[in-house]
Amino acid sequence: MHTLLFEPVTIEMKSSGEQRIIHSVEEAAEFLLIDWPARHGPTYLAAQKVCLDAMEGQQSIMDARAAFVEAAKTADIFVNGS
């Protein structure tokens, strides 16, 4: 499987100040599934689904990026590159 790259998104966890740059659909999906601070809510669930669907070729890379950015904003995670 090839990496589904998109324009990088820098996120910053409000609680720790830790910054991370997300470069691909795979990184976004991993962050959502493993490192997301609160795994609930409609935008979180939508982003998770869109990213997983994009990895299967059922959604576009840009849709996955947009859903990830929207979920991050909703979760009060600083987003740069939106």
Task: Describe what this molecule looks like in 3D.
This protein has helices at 25-35, 42-55, 61-74; strands at 5-12, 19-24, 78-80. The model has no long low-confidence stretch (mean pLDDT 90). It has one domain (5-80). Helix 1 crosses helix 2 (42-55), helix 1 runs parallel beside helix 3 (61-74) and helix 2 (42-55) runs antiparallel to helix 3 (61-74). The longest helix has 14 residues, at 42-55. It has a three-stranded antiparallel sheet. The protein has three helices and three strands, in the order E-E-H-H-H-E. By secondary structure, the chain is of the alpha+beta class.
The helix/strand order is EEHHHE
What's the mean pLDDT score?
90
Strands, count? 3
Helix content: 40-55%
Q: How far apart are the termini?
A: 26 Å
Which structural category do the helix and sheet elements fall into?
A: alpha+beta
The main sheet comes to: 3 strands, antiparallel
Work out the radius of gyration.
Answer: 11 Å
* Count of domains: 1
Beta fraction: 15-25%
User: Given the C-alpha coordinates, what overall shape results?
Assistant: globular
Total of DSSP H or I helical runs spanning 4+ residues: 3
- For the biggest β-sheet, the strand order reads 2-1-3
Low-pLDDT sequence parts: none
